[in-house]
Amino acid sequence: MIISSVRSQLIHESNRLNSGYFLNKDAINSRLLEENSDKCVQLKKLAEVWNPPIFKRQFCENTEKAIQYCQSSDIPNTLEGNNVYINKEQALKVKAIVKDRQILVTGFGTIGNTRLVNEISAGICYANNVCRVDVSSNSFYGFVYAFLTSKYGKSQLNKNASGSVVRYIEASGIRKTLVPVFSTKLTEKIHNLIVKSSKLRVEGNILLTDAQNSLKNSTGLKPLKKENFEYFGHHSSDRAVSTFTRNISEITSISINAFNYSKRIEEVINAVKMNHHTELVNCLDSNKFFSTGSFKRVAINSNKSIKLLNQSDIFNFRKTGKLISRRYVSTENFVRYGEILVAGVGTLGEGETFSRVIFANEELDGQLVAGEFIRMRTKDEIPSGYLFSWLSSDYGFRMIRSTQTGTKLCRPIPALLKDIPVPILDRAVMNEIDESVKKAHTMLYQALLKEEEAIALVEKEIEQWQK
Q1: Region 405-413: what's the mean pLDDT?
Q2: Contact status, residue 448 vs residue 456, Cβ threshold 8 Å
Q3: Cα–Cα distance between 195 and 144 in angstroms, integer?
Q4: Residues 6+ apart with CB under 8 A from 239
Q5: Mean pLDDT throughout 108-116?
């Protein structure tokens, strides 16, 4: 039960008597700034806040006339970009392409998720329900980002949002957000932490890309094109229909799904096997493929609870998870540093997480993940960072997806998954790729810590205003 006193003036101004309106978390956080409005300034005084107009999205293949397209649900992602493309001319016409140092705010569904655009994500098109915040040149954009990401910024956005089933807020409501005015020294410190965090994210993403490029260069494999694999995506007049025949002797008792017998994927596998290679199962320790398993989940919010991560947020930069009781959870199920996790359930949409791979860095070490993940630990002979780089590449991703079974919710077939070929390179090359992958994920973890430090400074300073 939440008990608190509210000034009669607030009740009179709002014409509301129901306690839930005044005592929910967002209202309480927002009221602290509203009662100290003399120490704040509205966001519209610091930045231009706007939404692009609604436009018809014309999805297409990745060509010189296309541009990456991200939805509001992509805002929290750790990595930059998406595999979905729309017509570039459309995006340019409505000015939906984001710029470096721009702050993006989700205004639809989950309100208040934020993203600071960097040099990698600049030039990507985002949906019109993602609000753009262009901080003026004489203000600290890192500080504004840290505040909007804090609980005090997010609470104001949610309090001012409209709708019941699906909530939304547009630029006109976001402009009213009260931003605290701190000392120049503290503001600059918070800003610099966010700048360093953004730089680490960029460097981490670049290292991961370089590691995959090094792997492909060492194997002589070229980037896959759409005609090299089967996929579910947009319809196009020039998209060739995939047809093939198989001898009945090639069909096994494992599956009768045509997707599992694709001749396009067979050619991809044969190209990989031109190198010295081994099967995926031979790269793993005695546990082979395993999962966390099932256990009773009792939601509890206390110091003795544990955070459970599932597929809906493990790919996010900030992993919120769900707090549950430790009582029914075995410590043997906790993730270890260097583990490789595959999102083991989902749909075949190009933007979906199904079959995508996670490397367990310092943030995930000791965490609890849902049983839907396929987990792997490598042998000493196979560096875990190297195997992650291979499985997260376009080759690894498409081969994992080719093992799927199911209709609405798909899962990999373990008997097919274990036979995925893994190139075996010179040990020095594999170690170099492994080191790059681990360094990149450490950078992403450090970026999170710096961002959390900046947010903590914001919240600590505001909390001192309580009377």
Answers
A1: 89
A2: no
A3: 12
A4: 61, 226
A5: 91
DSSP annotation string for 307-329: EEE-TTTTTBSS---EEEESTT-
The β-bridge partners of 346 are 410
Rounded to 10°, the helix 394-401/384-391 angle is 70
CA–CA separation, 23 vs 17, rounded Å? 11
Token couple for 91: 């995006």
User: Cβ(445)–Cβ(216) under 8 Å?
Assistant: no
Structural element, H or E, at residue 50 = strand 47-50
pLDDT greater than 90 at residue 108:
no
For position 18, what pLDDT does the model report?
64
pTM of the model: 0.91
Quote the CATH superfamily of domain 221-274+277-424. Answer: DNA methylase specificity domains (3.90.220.20)
Q: Are 401 and 354 in contact (CB under 8 A)?
A: yes
Q: Where are the domains of the chain?
A: 8-202+449-466, 221-274+277-424
Mean pLDDT of 354-380: 94
For the purposes of burial, counting CB atoms within 10 Å of the CB of 384, is it exposed (0-12), middle (13-18) or buried (19 or more)?
buried
Binned at pLDDT 50, 70 and 90, residue 83 comes out as: confident
At 220 the pLDDT is: 93
Tell me if 93 sits within 8 A of 55, measured CB to CB: yes
Q: For residue 15, report the phi and psi dihedrals to the nearest 5 degrees.
A: 60, 35
- Rounded-to-integer distance, Cα 315 and Cα 167, Å: 23
Tell me the average pLDDT of the chain.
90
CA of residue 167 relative to chain centroid, distance: 21
Helix, strand or coil for residue 105? strand
3-class secondary-structure state, position 47: strand
Q: How far apart are the first and last CA of the chain?
A: 22
- What's the DSSP call for residue 408? S
Q: Please tell me the number of Cα atoms within 13 Å of 69 on its side-chain side.
A: 25
CA distance linking residue 268 with residue 423, whole number of Å: 13
DSSP state, residue 119: T
Q: What is the CATH code of the structural domain delimited by 8-202+449-466?
A: 3.90.220.20
> In degrees, to the nearest 5, what angle opens at C-alpha 186 toward C-alphas 182 and 190?
105
Q: How many helices, marked H, and strands, marked E, lie in the chain?
A: 13, 19
Q: Using alpha carbons, select from 44, 30, 95, 97 the residue that is nearest to residue 70.
A: 97
Which helix (DSSP H) or strand (DSSP E) does residue 415 occupy? helix 414-417
Residue 428 corresponds to which tokens in the numbers above?
């020095």
> Cα(168)–Cα(129) distance, rounded to whole angstroms?
8
Nearest to 121 by CA among 164, 154, 82, 165: 82
Cα 54 to Cα 266: distance, rounded to the nearest angstrom: 42
CA 368 to chain centre: 18
